[in-house]
Design goal:
It is built from 12 helices and 15 strands. It is α/β, with parallel strands linked by helices and 360 residues long. The longest helix has 22 residues.
Length: 360
């Protein structure tokens, strides 16, 4: 299965492996649980694990961090650890991050417009590499034709600790659908523990919980059969053959938490290509026009207009219930399919549209 990360106009098929947490003897608890020995107060050691249980222990906060792409960069900026970031791959386009973070992000050195070249990453001077790329054909994190990934031995020789982000990365190892944002919240908690910003991580998670809990209180009692059906139209992935979000992708958790039913929640994994006949058979009540942030309000509007026009004019889709009713949501791809604080905002935005008057 595949995962995607898109920032600006760059599109890449990815799987996100996100830093989890585990025990490292001596009674340390999960960092993701917010109680790793002393990690709740910014203390160390802190131990995190990847999707397959490999452990990485930190005796202190990293000083020089490289991020694989803009999603992990944004999390660090939100945590207040942006001054520790010395480079990134897949940089955010100007204006694609929230205004308060954009100026900081633009100052980060770009080590690669796409996947960071192996030699550049190993020679970057980093002591931590946060990898949002899942393995595609190996555990290297940049496999599957996406570049020559360093081995774990090479990371170690270069003095670089290598961790992953797991809420969107562990699709291939999950045994059940992801229907809430707890894994995203755990990622934020985990990164907070690793970078010594646990207090800020706690604030971010509490804010997310408050928003999602309010939606749950408003619409949570709606019977499953009465919940609107919902299709995430990934316009930028191409229209010839639609790529849909399945039940292991974070978008499924966003959609479910908002009180909707992902029409492709019956496919196991993160993404799957289907035919338009499959979308027609699902006949969703609502369609999200998922386009990537173009960097300005005008450019985004143009992209949303194009996506809507395509659905309204295409013979295969113009007869869909949602299209005929004009039931479109203009919400960006990144805040729906990429793990982050804004997932909670998307939950609220969807719920307000689908349940008018019930959600503040």
């Amino acid at each position: 299965m595949r995962s995607r990360v898109w920032w600006g106009t760059t599109a890449v098929v990815l799987g996100l492996l996100v830093a989890g947490c585990g025990q490292d003897g001596g009674g340390d608890k999960d960092a993701a649980g917010g109680s790793a020995a002393k990690s709740g107060s910014g203390g160390y050691p802190v131990t995190v694990t990847d999707c397959r249980g490999a452990k990485t222990t930190f005796s202190g906060a990293p000083k020089n961090i490289v991020t694989s792409n803009a999603s992990s960069l944004e999390l660090l900026l939100r945590l207040g650890a942006g001054d520790k970031v010395i480079g990134t791959g897949f940089p955010p386009g100007k204006g694609t991050l929230p205004a308060a973070l954009d100026a900081q992000a633009q100052k980060v050195r770009v080590l690669g417009r796409a996947v960071i070249p192996k030699e550049k990453l190993l020679g970057s001077g980093a002591d931590l590499y946060i990898d949002t790329f899942a393995s595609m054909g190996g555990m290297g994190g940049m496999g599957g034709g996406m570049g020559d990934a360093p081995t774990e031995a090479e990371y170690k020789a270069a003095g670089i600790k290598h961790i992953y982000l797991k809420s969107t990365a562990c699709a291939s190892t999950r045994t059940s659908p992801v229907t809430d944002l707890s894994a995203v919240e755990d990622d934020i908690t985990s990164l907070g523990a690793v970078t010594g910003t646990s207090a800020r991580a706690g604030e971010l998670v509490a804010g997310m919980k408050e928003k999602v809990n309010a939606v749950e209180a408003a619409v949570g009692q709606t019977p499953e059969s009465k919940r609107p059906t919902y299709f995430f139209f990934d316009y930028d992935a191409g229209t010839k053959q639609p790529s849909v979000v399945c039940n292991r992708q974070v978008a499924n958790a966003v959609i479910t938490s908002a009180g909707a039913r992902n029409v492709f929640a019956d496919c196991d994994g993160d993404y799957q290509q289907v035919g338009w006949e499959d979308v027609i058979a699902k006949n969703p009540d609502w369609i999200q026009l998922g386009v990537r942030n173009r960097g300005s309000e005008a450019a985004n509007k143009k992209a949303f207009d194009e996506a809507q026009k395509w659905l309204e004019s295409n013979a295969a889709t113009k007869g869909l219930t949602a299209v005929k009713a004009g039931h479109f949501l203009r919400i960006g791809s990144e805040q729906t399919t990429i793990a982050g604080v804004s997932n909670a905002d998307t939950v609220v935005e969807i719920a307000k549209t689908l349940y008018p008057g019930k959600v503040d």
